Queue: 2 jobs
Job 1
Amino acid sequence: MNYKEFKKLYASSSRDIAREVFLNNQDSIQIKKEKTAVANLERIFEAVFSIGYKKGYQAMSMRDLSRETGMSLGSLYHYFSGKEELLGIIQTHGWSIMKRDLQQISETHEDPREKLRIVIKGHVFLSELFRPWFYFTFMEARSVKPTELKAVKSMEGSTQQILTEILVCGEEQGIFMPGNHELTAGMIKAMQQEWYLKRWKYRKLNVSVDQFAEHLVGIVEAFCLVREPGCQ
Amino acid sequence: MNYKEFKKLYASSSRDIAREVFLNNQDSIQIKKEKTAVANLERIFEAVFSIGYKKGYQAMSMRDLSRETGMSLGSLYHYFSGKEELLGIIQTHGWSIMKRDLQQISETHEDPREKLRIVIKGHVFLSELFRPWFYFTFMEARSVKPTELKAVKSMEGSTQQILTEILVCGEEQGIFMPGNHELTAGMIKAMQQEWYLKRWKYRKLNVSVDQFAEHLVGIVEAFCLVREPGCQ
DNA sequence: GTCTATACACAGATAGAC
DNA sequence: GTCTATCTGTGTATAGAC
């Protein structure tokens, strides 16, 4: 599978995400007309990502957000009760997208080797599709309030769990080498993160998302697949 | 080489770093007595890392810093001209430690395989020794002002360059496989970062810095070393 | 549903006593 | 060299007109 095929299968736009957020938070959002609310939420998220990417969420003022969205301060406060809640909405939604979609991807294959490939690539492709969400959730995870932090940590753990289980299962089937699979899973996650954290580097190097994902799979397989006897 | 041996060779304490900063910024620091200045700088850095780790530098107020250091607001401003300058001092010094020491480490060996091992492990060990510095410089790199950003970016690039050169050189000698070495170097850096960015995860898993570094070297060598003919 | 005007707390920074 | 007291701008958030 390459990125193009992936996009066809899992395509959902930023508009769709905004709609999801609207439906999940209909009680706290004071605007009731779906079309208006969804469109404005989309503008708000986009602006938060843009400003947040440059200087971080804490350094973004509500006036910055007002300027970037073209909405007034008063209007903004009809979409969330405060700056902290806005952060919470984005964080929890970002992580839940990630968790849900990766779970779904992992269920499309049975063979451990195929499953490992698809889960690794799927994560990279997903992070390409929703890069601002991934970048933001990673960089701003610290700022989330303790209540939500627990949920966020558990979602982060569950994505690593998926990888670990594949490695364990593959070892049992004699396909993968034995080893510290938790540690390997952590390393894989680190490399996946590289794509959305340092995206600018790979644009400069002219590395496409497909090349990146393939390279990553190559590294993991070189390490994990059992070598033929007599080989080093 | 393991972490213990590394520490013996490259040991310098947080006090030493504070002294270095003092000597480099003697003109802008209003306190002239070395002993006092160095001790207070050390306290300040420690406090910045502690608060910054929890909520980020932007969210840290000077009053937070005053409370944590036990120094008054007025005193703090005798050590730097403002919050922005303090950030700049920490950032540029953090990156320069990293660059200088890695350069030094890479010069201790000639054979590409040995050199690769030592540079990879050295980075991990260095980040263990100066973890707060590494974490902080990574997470707060965005907040640095444009003038300093250029310097920071170039230092980051140079550490990746060291890895790339080793891989290229090893390929020429027939020790390493051909491939996109820039890309591989980026992946290695990503895994190295994992250690200081997600340190809590590995403490929970009971993974030591030596185990982590060895695992990382294992992954890289499995991918990079030329396989014997007939092997996959 | 969106706007302008404004309340009020807190930020960064400084002056000047000790 | 360190402190307390204070200035001034900016931050988040709200009230109420349109």
Job 2
Amino acid sequence: MMKSYLLQTMKELALLGAIKNKIEISSLELSKKMKSSQQTSSRYLLELDKKGMITRELGIKKQLIQITSIGAEVLKEEFMQYQQIFELTDKIQFTGRIISGMGEGRYYTEQNGYVNQFKEKLGFVPYPGTLNVEIEHIERNKLRLLKNHNAIIIEEFETKNRTFGGVRSFHAKIGNVEGAIVLPLRSHYSNILEFISHHFLREKLNLEDGDEVKVVIYLSE
Amino acid sequence: MMKSYLLQTMKELALLGAIKNKIEISSLELSKKMKSSQQTSSRYLLELDKKGMITRELGIKKQLIQITSIGAEVLKEEFMQYQQIFELTDKIQFTGRIISGMGEGRYYTEQNGYVNQFKEKLGFVPYPGTLNVEIEHIERNKLRLLKNHNAIIIEEFETKNRTFGGVRSFHAKIGNVEGAIVLPLRSHYSNILEFISHHFLREKLNLEDGDEVKVVIYLSE
DNA sequence: ATTACTAGTAAGCGAGTAT
DNA sequence: TATACTCGCTTACTAGTAA
């Protein structure tokens, strides 16, 4: 993993155009940008060079520095994380593992009261059953983000026997398969995402219990 | 200035949604994200709290953390720098100081051969004279970025007395005043930007020699 | 001017552990 | 379970200076 001060150093170099061009910069000049000493900047550059993040041409006077494609990749990765924070707030990604439910998913997804609404509001008829994804504990925090967004509401309905509660729903994707996650209105936060799809996912994606999957949830319709 | 490891920590918190919500995270969980020890993460959180970057609610179990507006501002600033690197490559910003030229700017900007082209290609008739901005030495590196972009070419022309050389030109802005910078085709890199505008800038912006100005150069037309 | 080594000091780290 | 303290160890820092 990249040391944070080296990342900052590369960022400064990139701001001066070092991704596309060789830039001419002395360790003293860099140190002023970084608010450190000349020696420290010199050390940073040596470290970056050693890691293959930059190339250097040491002339008799100053050095010419350019960020390598490896270095640029690292910066790009960082940029994408900031985009995730400030721009791409229309989707949230979760990492989790497949687990078996208790079979009640199938019972619910076969109720006509739900099926008709899924078809109308989500655009597909679900394969019977839900695919349950247990998300990492720490990612439960991201679930809060879902609470603040307008979900696709599946209304409650009644049969002659009982009442089926309302469900909040979001379009979502596992692997490349489109579907939706369903969050029962009357329930507390859970660390399990219930995913429904027109397809039989365990077969289509060859999934078994314990497999790691990424779930992308779309917040805008 | 923000320590780089604290910035990284805030970024991780932000990725979990800590800008908009309180997130529930233990120092051990954070340490796994940061690839450090529980003790180090605990220390980071204490530092961030002390600096007013985050708020914490310590319950009997885990702590609830939210990034303050000050913290969010710091992250936003960082994001903008990455945008500068990867996205906003259609403009470049320079910082420099006003200096006096040798008066020859006036001579050139009054030549009809130039004036007509400025009017046609840049869209304004320049006030006689150029405003010279000496850029920080380190920023000369950014000038290289100009070289790779298509400039607005002001063609060379002849009068009965002499030949006037071609000029590369870019739309630009100082303060809020639109104008252009002109780069003589036959010259080496210089640390002086020559800015022309329809307005008399020294008066309009109340500029004197030595004043610091920001010049934004637009690379796309 | 530079870069970068050495050496002494300061800051950061994590194991152990108190609370 | 948590958080966060102490403390010994390691890493990072900068002044001085060689090349």
